[in-house]
Amino acid sequence: MSQPQATYAAIDAWIDQHFDEQVAFLQQLVRVPTDTPPGNNAPHAERTAELLQGFGFAAEKFPVPEAEVHDYGMQSITNLIVRRPYGAGGRTIALNAHGDVVPPGEGWTHEPYGAHIEDGQLFGRAAAVSKSDFSTFTFAVRALEAVARPTQGAVELHFTYDEEFGGELGPGWLLKNGLTRPDLMIAAGFSYEVVTAHNGCLQMEVTVHGKMAHAAVPATGIDALQGAVAIIHKLYAENQRYRGITSRVPGITHPYLNIGRIEGGTNTNVVPGKVVFKLDRRMIPEENPADVEALVRQVIADAVDGFNAGRPDEGIHVDIKRLLLARAMTPLPGNAPLVQAIQHNAEQVFGVVPPAVGTPLYTDVRLYVERGIPGVIYGAGPRTVLESHAKRADERLNLEDLRGATKVVARALADLLHKA
Hints:
- The chain is of the alpha/beta class.
- It has twelve helices and 17 strands.
- α9 packs across α12 (399-417).
- It is elongated and about 80 Å long.
- Helix content is 36%, strand content 23%.
C-alpha cells in the first residue's frame, strides 16, 4: 500500500541528512578484507556487528562450526541477523547482502581496500558487490524507523559470508538450522532493474592424470597437459551448441561454459604428470541441472577416449569433482508485492521504472526461493555488472546510486509493512 507523499519526502530527507554517515559506514566495511578464498570472514562480521551496535542494532552472531567451514574450503564464517520487530501481524521481510568477495587481482589504480572516493564514486573490492548493500539496507531500515514507524511486521538484516562458494554456509545454513523464516526477501543488487530470475551454476574440478617423464625422453611419459588441452578444446566447443539453447526469461540469453583456473606440472624440463582445471557452466532456468552435469561428464569422457585412442596400454585418466551446484532462481507468484513496491518507488526516485528481468548471474536468493520464500534482487549499483567492475580491477560504486537505492528500499519497506 502506497504512503502519503509527505512520508516519502520525509524518508528521502532523512537519508539525505545522514548520507555522509552512510558513506562512512560503507568505507569502514570495505576496508576490512574478505578475500574468498581463503575465506577468513569472521573478522568482518565482528566489525560489522560493532558498527551496527553504534546505530542501536543488535546483531545476533551465528558462527558456522569450524569443521564445516574447513571441509568447505574456507577458514571462518560468522553470519549475522539483525531482527527489528514492529508488532503483531504483518510480514517479516529479510534484506540479505554478502560480505565475502573474490580477491582483488591485478590492475588496480586505487587501493583495493582503501575505499577512496573520486568524482562521486567509491572505489574498492566489494564497493558494488555487495558491501554496498550492507549500507543500503541498514540505512533504509534506520530511515524507515525514524520516519514511517511501522506498527506491525518485522525486518531482518541478513549479512552473510558465503556467496562466492555458493551460499550453503551463508543463508543456506541459517535457513537449514531454522534461525530465520521470513515471508519475503530482497537481496543485494543494482538500482536500475528488479531481478526476479537468475541462472544456475555448475562448477567442477577436473584432475587429469598422466605420467611424469624427463623432457629429454618424452615418449616415456604421458603428457597430462596435452590431455587437458584436448578435454578443454571439446568443452569450449560446446559453447557453439549452447548458443542455440535460449531462455524465455528477459535478461538471460543462453548457457555458457568457462575454464577459470588451470594448474599443473612440476618444472619446465618435465613432462607434466598431473593437471587440474576448474570449469564453470552457467545454466539457464529452463535447463535440468542433473542433465547438464551428466552431459558435461560425457563430453569429458569422450575427449579422454579420443585422446587415448591408439594408446592401448597407457593413457590419461581423469577424476571429476563437483564443487558447486547452484540451481537457477525462478519467480514465485508471491513476489508481486516486492516488484510493485520497488518499481513504484524507483520511478519516483530515479525517474524510470526498473524492468523486472532475469540475470545471467547466480545468487543466494535461490536458497530462499527453494524454501518457498518469494524474493527479488535490488540494491545499489549501476545498470550493468560491467559498469561496476565487479570481480575486476577498480570496482566502484556511484554514490548517487547508493543514495537513490536506499530511498527506494526504505520507501518500499514502508509500503510493504503498512497496515492495510
